[in-house]
Write a structure and sequence with these properties.
This protein is 7% helix and 60% strand. The chain contains six helices and 39 strands. The protein is mainly beta. The chain has one domain: Beta Barrel (Maltoporin, Chain A).
């Protein structure tokens, strides 16, 4: 096995080196022009104002609609892993530069203590709720663009973004008619099948003034996990492998001719998820790739099967006004509700029902008057979130988080080749937490103020080549958590985590491609980690590394792409964890390479290969529970004739055993978060 892995690594490393080398040294090969090789202008919105890639000081990967169109990957988290140093992690989350997006509170800890993500997910300006597990993941149907911002985004996005952010834009209504229909299915190694249906329609209500857009998609069927059981458990189960998901989005766009400069948009989103959602298998997954319903420990340690009934919905209003003198204003108001509930099988006594109601208001004022060397953003933010969790037979938990912030950023053009960037955010967060139950009663209030500065600079060698550097502070709030591993149960407090992040980037755009690299060094104070079943703050830790990414049209019909990430993490100083240990879920290497080949105007095919290096699942760096060290390959083909497109794909082509994370407690693990088995998919899309 090791010899095979070594050969795989050598081959993959060679492929990536060649592809990246081509993206630097072969731009001349794209001298010919064609429709497919035109480089489009990419607009980044994740820094709270529209910017081109070369005007951005954040390391960002932008995935456009054309890369999402075939339906191969529908989860935004799966899509995000195409960026360097971004890998899939446990609890349906991702890890960015070694920082677990799920945060320290996962599983039951999140219900008792409150989930605090480290990577925020924002869809059309609405921050998605996080419960310590991805119960209601965002999907990619009718999505315009996904931005993967790496490194702390606290200055612009606030808390819950110390590791980065995923910013998703869906398509807006159009003043012309367009409709798209899709039907497809996936089949897995265990023979199960999931079917997929989707619809999008958009058009005018009042010519050039009022338009709508409706997007619907749904999935239903049996999943790829395998289940084993004792006695007749599977004969009586309620359908442990079945799941159903429905997503609906409706938009109205109003641009009244009588009020030039006004643009108003109303967006409604609804997501429902029923049935299977966990992907936790037995800890001995490689030798026994099944999810155990029961084991010799009395059942509970082996019960990984849960059936959810969850709903997330939001309504948002965006009102933009351009004063036509270099000053514009954008107001965003949103109301989000998320209700997560699940039952456990076969131990049906465990039942959780948790919901969040969150109202958010944000106003941004943009100032860039004609002839001025300054462009400025001033923002005001307010959020009020109420959480209620009922755990049957145990505890009733209620929480309230109120966040107020003022933030801003100014760019000063010193000369045509040099810009200075400065920004800051001042935020106040108030927390209230009440727990009532048979084993614990507790009430707590906290209030925290934080100042988050950012400074940077951009140098333009020419219109296509830039370097940038930035220093910024990131932050994630502390709180209090429940120790339910000891008797009696006890609540305790843990502190906030902060980071000072240093970064430099280089971007080269050329006809038919681009190349970028980023180097970073992050100095963490109070990093939140699980130590001996309790949340602890690590005194000092650090992460540093480098990222490279490139794409090129080697010919008018051949596109090459590649990326590479290298990462080092280390506990520098701490009283409860050993210095020199690595942070969990932080692979040192993350490599990928791929191509797309077009044959005429109707047919294309392509493939991508990815390698994720070995990493530890826990802070103790237990060697028996190392994860990662896997190689995956995906392939696809597409045939288009007129308005009809047929897409076929296979993911995890070699059916690699993929382990994202072991769940380690007291030095042992009974289950592992695992990746999807080999999957074949087919989608048929018709556009009108």
């Amino acid at each position: 096995m090791k010899t095979v892995q070594a050969k795989r690594m050598n081959y993959l490393s060679y492929s990536i080196a060649v592809a990246i080398g081509m993206s630097v040294s072969l731009p001349a090969l794209s001298a010919e022009t064609s429709k497919t090789s035109q480089t489009e202008t990419i607009v980044v919105t994740g820094e709270r104002m529209d910017k081109s890639l070369k005007d951005t000081t954040t390391a960002v990967t932008v995935i456009g609609e054309d890369q999402l169109a075939n339906g191969e990957k529908t989860s935004i988290n799966d899509i995000a892993t195409s960026a360097p140093n971004v890998v899939a992690a446990g609890f349906e989350s991702i890890s960015i530069r070694g920082i677990e997006g799920a945060g320290v509170a996962t599983g039951a800890h999140a219900f008792y203590s409150g989930g605090k993500a480290r990577v925020s997910t924002i869809v059309d300006g609405v921050s998605q709720a996080w419960f310590g597990q991805g119960y209601t993941p965002s999907k990619s149907w009718d999505v315009k663009q996904v931005e993967v911002l790496r490194g702390p985004q606290s200055t612009s996005q606030g808390t819950n973004s110390i590791g980065g952010a995923l910013v998703i834009q869906t398509n807006d209504p159009t003043y012309y008619w367009e409709t798209k229909l899709r039907a497809g299915f996936e089949t897995y190694e265990n023979g199960n099948v999931k079917n997929h249906l989707a619809l999008m329609t958009s058009g005018p209500i009042i010519k050039d003034e009022l338009a709508f857009r409706l997007a619907l998609d749904g999935t239903k069927g049996d999943g790829w996990m395998n289940y084993s059981a004792t006695a007749d458990e599977l004969d009586a189960d309620p359908g442990v492998s079945e799941s159903e998901n429905l997503n609906a989005r409706f938009k109205l766009l109003w641009e009244p001719a009588a009020i030039p400069g006004l643009k108003a948009k109303l967006t409604y989103n609804r997501h429902t998820y029923d049935g299977e959602y966990l992907a936790w298998a037995s800890a001995d997954y490689v030798n026994d790739p099944t999810l155990l319903l029961y084991n010799s420990n009395g059942g509970r340690d082996g019960v990984n099967t849960r059936l959810q009934d969850s709903v997330a919905q939001s309504v948002a209003a965006d009102i933009d006004y351009d004063f036509d003198n270099g000053i514009s204003n954008s107001l965003h108001i949103a109301y989000l509700t998320t209700d997560v509930s699940f039952e456990q099988y076969p131990e049906t006594t465990t039942y959780v029902d948790s919901d969040i109601k969150n109202i958010t208001a944000e106003n941004r004022l943009f100032i860039q008057t004609p002839g001025s060397d300054f462009s400025t953003l001033i923002g005001l933010y307010y959020s009020d979130a109420d959480t209620s969790t009922l755990i049957t037979g145990a505890t009733d938990v209620k929480g309230k988080t109120t966040t107020s912030a003022v933030y801003g950023e100014t760019t000063y053009t010193l000369n045509p080749a040099f810009k200075l960037v400065g920004g800051a955010r001042f935020e106040n967060e108030k927390l209230e937490h009440t727990t009532v139950g048979s084993r614990v009663d507790d009430q707590d209030k906290q209030s925290n103020n934080v100042f988050l500065p950012k400074v940077g600079a951009i140098y333009y060698f020419d219109d296509t080549t830039t370097v940038n550097t930035t220093v910024r502070k990131g932050y994630n709030a502390g709180g209090h958590a429940l120790d339910f591993y000891n008797t009696p149960w006890e609540y305790y407090e843990y502190d906030e985590e902060t980071v000072i992040a240093y970064e430099a980037g280089f971007l080269k755009e050329f006809k038919g491609g681009q190349f970028s690299t980023n180097v970073f060094y992050n100095d963490y104070s109070g990093y939140q980690a699980m130590v001996s079943n309790r949340f602890e703050n690590i005194d000092e830790s650090r992460t540093y590394g480098i990222e490279l990414a490139g794409s090129i049209w080697a010919t008018t019909s051949t596109e090459l792409r590649a990326s590479a990430g290298y990462l080092e993490t280390e506990i520098v100083k701490d009283s409860v964890a050993e210095s020199g240990l690595e942070l969990p879920n932080a692979p040192k290497t993350n490599l990928s390479a791929g191509f797309t080949q077009y044959l005429g105007q109707n047919f294309s095919f392509g493939a991508d290969v990815t390698y994720v290096g070995k990493y530890y699942s826990d802070l103790d760096n237990t060697e028996d529970y190392t994860a990662g060290d896997y190689f995956t390959a995906d392939a696809r083909l597409q045939y288009t004739i007129g308005d009809f497109t047929l897409d076929g794909y296979v993911t995890n082509l070699t059916d690699e055993d993929v382990i994202y994370q072991y769940q380690v407690s007291s030095g042992t693990a009974t289950k592992a978060s695992v990746g999807q088995t080999r999957t074949f998919g087919l989608n048929a899309t018709y556009r009108m």
